[in-house]
TrEMBL record:
Record PANTHER family: PHOSPHOGLYCERATE MUTASE (PTHR11931)
Pathway per the UniProt entry: Carbohydrate degradation; glycolysis; pyruvate from D-glyceraldehyde 3-phosphate: step 3/5
Role, per record: Catalyzes the interconversion of 2-phosphoglycerate and 3-phosphoglycerate.
Annotated keywords: Gluconeogenesis, Glycolysis, Isomerase
PROSITE patterns per UniProt: PG_MUTASE (PS00175)
SMART domains in the record: PGAM
Gene giving rise to this polypeptide: gpmA
Source lineage: Bacteria, Pseudomonadati, Bacteroidota, Cytophagia, Cytophagales
Name of the molecule in the record: 2,3-bisphosphoglycerate-dependent phosphoglycerate mutase
Family statement: Belongs to the phosphoglycerate mutase family. BPG-dependent PGAM subfamily.
Residue positions of the active site: 9, 85
Enzyme class: isomerase
Catalytic activity: (2R)-2-phosphoglycerate = (2R)-3-phosphoglycerate
TM helices/strands, residue ranges: none
Amino acid sequence: MSTLVIVRHGQSQWNLENRFTGDVDIDLTSLGEQEAHRAGKVLKGMYFDACFTSILKRAIRTLNIILQEIGQTYLPIIQDAALNERMYGDLQGLNKTETAQKFGADKVDQWRRSYDIAPPNGESLKDTANRVIPFFQRHIAPLLAENKTILIVAHGNSLRALMMYLQHITPENIAHTEIQTGVPKQYLLDNELEVVSVTDLHE
């Protein structure tokens, strides 16, 4: 049995401002830092063999805060752009409400929620999955197959893509699947890396 914990980074400045962030390198807010500390407190007592994160500072800082809280700052940390947030193209930096008013709420909802329709010059969730899943299979799955305990701190859409893969969530159902900032989600996996249980970890 192996354990995988995934955490979406704490609130970022553009989360707070209701803007499309995508792969723009935006930092955490003070609330985001608090969320990271809470996640670390929840994970105290759990030993991780390795950690993975994106190359974006909001995820890296969230991971560093978590590791400080659990007292495991010496762990191997692998940073890779494959785990970056979905790139929102022409929408990056735009206010979500104003964008819905400009293009129509249905169109913006389609860009945000559909599996394979990308915003203008951006990535769809399918595109995101096409980089997240191969990275997981190459670098993380072999560790889990050795019954290692792994922590991934990344982003809403990169983690939703991974959740689709692990939990066999359909493209239709992923549209209604959210992942909260700063709330660890724990997967217990069998020897075939099939999910035995999924638990959101709260204080």
